[in-house]
Amino acid sequence: MSFRSALLASAAILTAGSAFAADLPARVAAPAPYIAAPMFTWTGFYVGLNAGAGFNNKGNGVNYLNYGVVPLPGAPGSFYGINGSNSDTSFTGGAQAGYNMQFGSFVAGVETDINYIDRNKGGNGIIPNTVAAGTYYTVNHGNSSNYFGTVRGRLGYAFDRALIYVTGGLAYGGNGGSGTVYSNVVTVAPFAVVPTAVSYTGGNSSSIGWTLGGGLEYAFSNAWSVKAEYLHVDLGSNSRTFLTPVGGGATTAVVLRNENKFDVVRAGLNYRF
Q: What pTM did the predictor assign?
């Protein structure tokens, strides 16, 4: 074969190869692998803030006990003639922290919180003096709380990002109070009432009790959730005692009694790690 014939044959082969390659389908890039979004879970630590209102509708009152030879009306140790401001609504706010563990649709956890609360209530009443004519005793007293905290368990059922739960455990708080017994002498001409403080008591104390409630929490992102919660807090009762002379060598012990029980309705915001 001559050189010219070889060159023509090579050109023919190249032309046929190019035409065959043009007929092949274009190469398509492989699709990216599918990565599923992480499944939402309530498991983990969280911290947050809360704010709401505290409601008190428990009574307070005064008991008296008789010492000596002069009895007062009624049986010793009975409730007598004291009126209390039995309802009180106050602001409350604080911070909480906790941990959840999810088992299927069930969620169990623990939570602790510390909160400010501004609770104030008081009362007043009259105790007669059966010895000195024209003389009677008045009692003024008040009770206040400025903080409370809880350490609670939580048990709930999750509907994906919505969680309904019950909660309960230990509650604690601070209580302050004071009161004064006045001896009031009534003069006829001119008519006047002259009060004289004959006994005073006051001070602060801490109480431990229990709490029970429930709530609803919703996670609007993987890290943030909001909640609405109700708690009943029972810190028991506390009392303060006056020893007041009533004449004739007798002394009356006046006991101021305050019920430290209230309800809390609040909203909260949590950041979950």
A: 0.69
